[in-house]
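ingest -> validate -> predict -> emit
validate: passed (alphabet ok, no gaps, 57 aa)
predict: started
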Amino acid sequence: MLGELKNGDKIVTSGGLRGTIISLKDDAVTLRVPPDNLKLEVSRASVVSVTTAEEGK
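emit:
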């Protein structure tokens, strides 16, 4: 699952953060988190669930 992450995926982290991936690095992802569109960088290993952009439509 972690290897298949891509921009636009909506994810939930182990800490409960919900956001949309806006960029990827080898070991981290950058999320846009509502309501103020904050940008947060979290460890790729902290991702526990993914909703792809296609599933959301």
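The chain has a mean pLDDT of 91.
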